[in-house]
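During the second year of the project, the team shifted from modelling isolated chains to modelling whole assemblies. The rationale, set out in the original proposal, was that interfaces cannot be judged from single-chain predictions alone. As a representative example for this report, we include one of the complexes processed in the last quarter. Its constituent sequences, exactly as entered into the pipeline, are reproduced here:
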Amino acid sequence: MSIFHSINTSASALTAQRLRMDVISSNMANVDTAGYRRKSVVLQPKEGNFSSFMSQAMSKQTTGAGNGVKVSKIVEDTETPFKLVYDPEHPDSDENGYVELPNVDPLREMVDLISATRSYEANVTVMNASKGMLMKALEIGK
Amino acid sequence: MFCRIRRKTTSFCTNQQIYIFIYEVENLKLFSNTINTLENALNYSSTKQKVIAQNISNADTPGYKAKNVSFKSELNDAMSTVTGKQTNSKHIAIQSSGRAGVTITTDRTTSYNHTGNNVDIDKEMSDLATNQIYYNAMIERISGKFNSLQTVIKGGR
Amino acid sequence: MTISIPSVSKVFQSNAAISTPSTTPYEAQKSFASVLKDSIEKVNEAQNQSDVMTEKLARGENVDLHQVMIASQKASITMSATIEVRNKVIEAYQEVMRMQV
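Output from the structure prediction step:
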C-alpha cells in the first residue's frame, strides 16, 4: 500500500470502465450481424497479490482498503433469445427463411454507455483529488 | 515547546561566593500534543481517501458492499495495547498491530439495488470533497506549526 | 541582650544546608553530560527514522507521503534545536571565561 495506492485503485476502475465501453461499442457495431450474441462484462473487486498482503502484515499500516475493480470475464448473453426475422432472401437465413438477428437492444446499450461514462468521470475526479492531496503533502514545511 | 526546568545543584567558586546553578532540563518535549493530533488526523484522512477510491471504483460491481473508516473505539484501543512479556531477551516482542485509532469496516446491512451493491455514489462524492478539504486543512496546520517551531528555534531569523 | 554565637552560626549553617543540596559538582557535571548525550541520541534517532521512511518511500513500500514529510520535518527541527542549544551553551561558557576574576 504505497503512497499511490488510491491512484492505482482509480486507475483500475478507469481500465474496467473503458473495457466495458469497448464491449458496448462492439455490441452496437454488430447490431445487424446475424448470429452475433450480445456481450457484457462481469466486474469483480480486485484482490491484492501476496506481496501486498505480506507488506501490510509486516508494517503497521491499516489493512483492507482494497485494490479496485477488474473485469473478470466477458460473457455472452445466452438468456435473451435471438430476434427471429422472416427474410428468405437473406444469405444467412435458415431452412424456414428466418434470420437470427442479434439480441442487442440499442436502448439498453445506450443506458449502459451513459452509466459507464459517468463512472469513468467519477473515477477521474477521485484520481485528481488524490493527486491534489499528494501534491499538497509535499509542501509540508515550505 | 515545553521544558520543565529544575534547579539541580549549586557549586561554589572558591575565591568569591558565586553560586553557579546548573539547571537540569527535564522532559524536553519539542512537539506538542497538537502535532500528534494532527498526525493522527492525517492518517485517518489518508485511509479515508483510499476507502473512498475503492468504493467509487466498485460503484457498479454486483455484490460489493461499501467500506467505511472509523476511529477505533475506546475498548479496542485499550485491547490493542497488549504487549507480550519477554522473559528472555531472545523472545520476539508481540506488539499491537494497526495504526493508532483507525479501522476499516464494511457495511453489509444495506443493499441499494438488485445486484446487491450498496455504494451510494452521491455520498461518496461528497465525502471525497469533504475529505480533500479536511486533508488540505490538516496539512496547512501542521506545516504552520513546524514553521513556527523553526522560527522560534532560529531566533526570529 | 546578647545573641548567642553558637545559635547564630547554627542558623547560618542551616541556611547553607538548605541552599546546598547533597550533590557534588562532579555529579552535576555528569548529569548534564548525560542530558546532552540523551539529546544527541534523540537527534540521531530522529534522523535515522527519517532515513528509514525516505528509503521506504523510494522503494515504493508501505508508507504514506505525509508520514515521510512529517518525519523529515521532525528530524530537521530536532537537529536545529540541538544545534541552537549547543551554540547557546558555548556562548555562555565563553562569556563566563571572559569574566575578570
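Strands of chain A lie at 39-45, 69-76, 83-86, 98-101. Residues 57 and 63 of chain A are 8 Å apart (CA to CA).
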